Amino acid sequence: MAFLADSLSRVKPSPTIAATTKAAELKAEGRDIIGLGAGEPDFDTPDHIKEAAKAAMDAGKTKYTPADGIPELKKAICAKMKRDNDLDYKPNQVSVGTGGKQILYNALVATLNPGDEVLIPAPYWVSYPDMVLLAGGEPRFIEAPLETGFKITAEQLDAAITPKTKWFIFNSPSNPTGAGYTRDELKALTDVLMKHPHVWVMTDDMYEHIVYAPFEFVTPAQVEPGLYDRTLTCNGVSKAYAMTGWRIGYAAGPVELINAMRKVQSQSTSNPSSISQWAALAALEGPQDYIDTSRVAFQRRRDLVVSMLNDAQGITCPTPEGAFYVYPNIAGCIGKTAPSGKLIKTDEDFTLELLEAEGVSAVFGAAFGLSPNFRVSYATSDENLKEACTRIQRFCAKLV
């Protein structure tokens, strides 16, 4: 009898965490490393949010809370959904979890049976397929190549849906590409979904507020009200308010689904951190000027990185609509030889050689389901980005 569960053999550790860990280890050894792998803002959490957390501790709000969130936070999430997305929800339609990842996982565990399929556009956030596998489902991928701006078409979605399809996971703006769907592009997808009433929609709107003009964010249930009763709209405070370590994600959807997710959470982690919940309340209800300030910085960094990477030999880097990632194509580098003498056969080879030769850490494209590419997070200082891109240019120039 094997000791470890068979289901664990279906999944792999997070490549993004692995890249960040490797960079930290090399730094600890004294190497000059610039890490472009972390998917989190480099800015500090706004002061008023930290003050709210301190006030909550001083007030003794350090005990268990309801399993999926305090009433005050659920009410604020409903107000946020109405304010930002024109979606009407009641507190009993809201679930708060320990980060956005737990919210997605709870929903999958609560709904998937063996053989159920989940459609995932590729490239995708690395955790989607593995969460589906852990929950007992089968991930099915729809490739969104560089030629379509890393976005799937309505025709692709329609062709991918089968009688076994239970969920469609939709992430815009995207991790890893930063690609965002316009209202018209999303309407074309929702028109397809309206033809298939057995398919539910799981949105990952975590980068909602990190978008660049003229792009305007919209979410599926907002574009097509007919999908409201089978859409789980997921979000969180991690990216918009630089609160990655606070671990608060949330979702709004049909009561039956929310109740099922609460049952899963009540028997796993129980409530999210009480202090983090009060901090998240301050984030949603307090001043929102931080969002605009950080967006300006991220857009400046995006433009810098896109320009410099497009000047690197063998690299094509499209301009993303949002998030803080670019996903350069390196087809022009594949088949060449690195200064070490190693042949660059894959995008993983490229990132490993880049780290070894120039001390730049990034995540290879195969981890996200689309090659030959690599992901660069520009959630770091302008100075680091200029130096990192200069090193990438130098590395590419030496490939023969």
From TrEMBL:
Residues 32-392 form the Aminotransferase class I/classII large domain. Keywords: Aminotransferase, Pyridoxal phosphate, Transferase. One of its GO terms (biological process) is amino acid metabolic process. InterPro entries: Aminotransferase_I/II_large (IPR004839), AspAT/PAT-like (IPR050596), NHTrfase_class1_PyrdxlP-BS (IPR004838), PyrdxlP-dep_Trfase (IPR015424), PyrdxlP-dep_Trfase_major (IPR015421), PyrdxlP-dep_Trfase_small (IPR015422). Its cofactor is pyridoxal 5'-phosphate. It is an enzyme of class 2 (transferase). Homodimer. Belongs to the class-I pyridoxal-phosphate-dependent aminotransferase family. This is Aminotransferase.
